[in-house]
Amino acid sequence: MDTFTLAATSFIICLSLILTGKKGKLHMSFAGLCAAVFIWQSVVFLRDFFDTYFLMILENLALLAIAPLILRFFRHLTRNKSFVLRGVVIIFFMVSITGIFSLLTKLSEWPYLNFVILSYLLIVLVFCYVSLWSYVKKLPPSTEKKRLGYLLVACPVALLLICLDFLPRLGYSFPPISGLVWAALLYLVLLVIAYPQLNELHDFFARALVIFISTISGAIIFYFVALFFSPSTPSFTSVIMASFLIVISLTPLKMILKKVFSYFYPDSKDVFTSLYEFDEKLEKEKAFMLAEMAPVLAHEIRNPLGSIKGAAQYLKSEAASEEQKNLLDVIIEESNRLNTVVHQFMDYARPYKLNFKAQNVNVIIQKAISILAANKLAENINIVRELNHDLPNADVDEQQFLQVILNIALNGIEAMPQGGTLTFRTSNIDTGPEGAITITIRDTGSGIDKEEIKNIFKPFYTTKKRGAGLGLAICQKIIKEHSGFIRVKSIPGQGTVFFIKLRAAL
């Protein structure tokens, strides 16, 4: 089962790289290496049932083919800037060809031939590891250096785990795991070369943890089902390996079926969309439609609105009575209000690229307080600052984040028409290597009812007589695009508190 796991894993990885259309030299060289490993382990698996001379020759042929394929892959992995140059690959390729031809002679009957070939393969692996170490050492601090550094650490760890397979020879009872370890190492290499968006160690661990939990969950379910319905249950190790193969083969299998179904049923585009993903998919489609519709709608409203306002202003200058002027003032005022609604709608609907910059959030809050102090609405408001001066920087877009602070603060001021206290507080949260910061904005106003709190972040929901209901929806959108979250607590008659959490800058 251990051998079968490695064979199946290498085949699945090879198939995944081919199906995803990654035709780069690095990806294709790794796909070729995985194909050779698949052939080698398939032959080893078959030899447990049919120990023939032909299979023994085929196993040695696969091993000899793996050596130059490993060198070719590492040459592309190190961008041809290490010891693994093209000439070195050609030399080892010729050595492997010579070895293949020797298998057609009486030398193939030599009892130590397999040991010599495995030693040759080990020399190639050590040479590639030293070359990779030398290459990574020369790299400047970068994402590539970090990712390849993870691979440098994983290789000796895998070697130590593989050594556990020698414990039974020393009298210890331990199931073989070398195939599973090699399979995990191949999968790690796949993550390193095929998914550049994974650049932190916790990203790799998170990916591995998802696979691990899925594997264990599947194995437990299968094991207990077999326990209830079968008189003899398989070993838990076999079930674990089978579950692991099923988990990692789901994606390529889904891709194959998707290609087949798209050919025979081109209109069934959502057949592979999970029922749990439909809501998320619909939200993305609605956001896309809104972004497409917003500029057109704004254009169609603003043009006649400008004409209405211009005509009202002209008529006001020609109006004879005070009553007519008051009516025209209403038209102008409502035109301005509608224009503000259109502007807020555009802010909410249109996609925009944030200009992130590591900076102190306290500075932005101080700027917001200065703007609020100049507002007539804040004349009876006592503004309190409780800012942590040891706050780490955060990656924020200053203008967008300033808009969030002002929107929330102005809502709080409007909730205190008779005056009150508006408190700004910042604090540092130690959540490991990254850390986070929180911003709280508290008012002592009329508060929000429990039923209304559920809806305050929904677009166009408002309890104000003349509000558009987009302010807090825009705030939530901006905070989400900062990879943070915003929530609110309120007690009617006592006040409201908004909590904003952001990740600290690395």
Description:
- This protein is α+β, with helices and mostly antiparallel strands and 506 residues long.
- The chain has 3 domains: 2-198, Rhodopsin 7-helix transmembrane proteins (Rhopdopsin 7-helix transmembrane proteins, Up-down Bundle), CATH 1.20.1070; 275-349, Helix Hairpins; 357-503, 2-Layer Sandwich (Heat Shock Protein 90).
- The chain has helices at residues 2-19, 25-47, 53-77, 86-102, 113-138, 143-162, 178-194, 201-229, 236-264, 278-318, 322-349, 361-373, 398-414, 450-453, 471-481; strands at 357-359, 381-386, 394-396, 420-429, 436-443, 485-491, 495-503.
- The strands form 2 sheets. It has a 5-stranded mixed β-sheet, with helices on one face.
- Helix 2 runs antiparallel to helix 3 (53-77).
- The radius of gyration is 33 Å and the shape is elongated.
- The model is unreliable at 275-279 (pLDDT under 50).
